[in-house]
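Blinded run. Sample ID left blank on purpose so nobody reads anything into the name before looking at the predicted structure. Input follows.
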Amino acid sequence: MSLVANTGKLAGRTLFITGASRGIGKAIALKAAKDGANVVIAAKTAEPHPKLPGTIYTAAEEIEALGGKALPCIVDVREEKQVQAAIDEAVKKFGGIDILVNNASAISLTGTAQTDIKRYDLMHNINTRGTFLASKLCLPLLKNSNHAHILNLSPPLNMNPYWFSIHVAYTMAKYGMSMCVLGMSEEFKPFNIGVNALWPKTAIATAAIEMLTGDTSTSRKPEIVSDAAYLMLSQDPKKYTGNFAIDEDVIKQNGINDLTPYACDPSNVTNLMPDFFLEVPGESEQQEKKSEPEGQIPTLFGSISKVITPELVKKTQAVYQFNVKGKEEGVWHIDLKNGDGACGQGEPRNPPDATLTMDSTNFAEMFAGKLKPTTAFMMGKLKISGDLQKAMKLEKMMKSLKNKV
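Blinded prediction complete.
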C-alpha cells in the first residue's frame, strides 16, 4: 500500500540496490520501477530459499512488470570482485549509476558473550564494510551523474549506552553504516552527491522481524520505507544531504498524516512496535505516574501455574528468570523446558536460557497483554541477558496465556 504518488523524477535513472531480492530493498526497487527507473538487483539469492520468498530473478520480473528495467546480479557485498562486476554490468546495460541504496544487512541481537566471531564478522563485513565498499566502487560513476544519491538503511547515531549494552556487535555494525553517512555526506559535497540515512520509526514486516518475533501484527508494511526513500531520492542532492531521516517523519512532511494503511493490522495502529535505536519521548515519566496495585505478581504467577501445559513446554523449550525491580522487587521464574513445566518465586532449578529484568509495573502489564515483550525490549523497559531468540518466544507464550491469566 503506497500513499506517495509517483512523480516520474526517477525515470531513466539507474539505481544500484544491495539486498534487493526481498523486503525493504525490493520495495524501494518496485517504487522506482513505477517511474520507469533502471534497477540493478545486487543480492545473493539466485536460488529459491526454503523459508524466504524471492530471488534476484523474481524481483527482476516484478520490476519489469511495473515498467522498470532490471539487471539481476549475484552479489555478496563482502566480495569486492562481485560488487565491481555488477557495477561493470550496470555500465554496459544502463550507461552508469545515479543512485546507490545500501540496504544489505545482517542482524544478531546477542550480547558480547553470546556473539560468536563468525557472526560478528558477518555483521561487520556486510553492514559496515559492504556499505563502504559499494560506496567506494560506485563513487566514480556517481560523480558523473547529475542526480547522484547514496541512501543507507541505517539509524540515527544515538549515543545512549542502552543501545550498545544489549547487542554491542550489531549496534557497532549498523552505526558503521551511519558513520559512512556522516563522513561521506561532507566528503562528497564537492561532487554534488547527496548522502543520507533512512530508518523506520516502527518495526517493518520483513523476514528479520518474522524471525525475531514470529509475528508482524504490530509492524508496518515495507511500503512506508520505500515511499520515504522515493521522496528522499527525488530531492536535489546538492541541497539534500547529511540527513538521518525517519520514515514516518518524511511521509508526514509530504502532507500525509494518516499512516493507518501502512499498518499490517490496522487495529494495532496505536500499538506499533518501535524500532531499535529510537527513544520514545515521555515514556519513563508517564510510567512513573501510573499507580501500581500491591501484590500483583504473586497473583499473576498463581494464575500462570494453572495454565502451564506439556504442550506449552514442548513448544517453548526455555527457562526464564525474571529479576523484578520496583515496589514488588524479587526474583521469579518460569520453566517451560523441563518435565511438565513449573513457575514460582526464586531462581529456577535449572539454569535460565534468558534472564529478563524490568520494573514490576511493566512486568504486570506484560503479563496482562498490555505491553508486548518485544516492544518493551525495544523501548528499553525490558533488559535481556542470555538467549534473545528464546526470550522473544515469550511473545507467543503471552498469547496463549493472555485470555487465561
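Unblinding after everyone has recorded impressions. The two ends are 37 Å apart (CA to CA).
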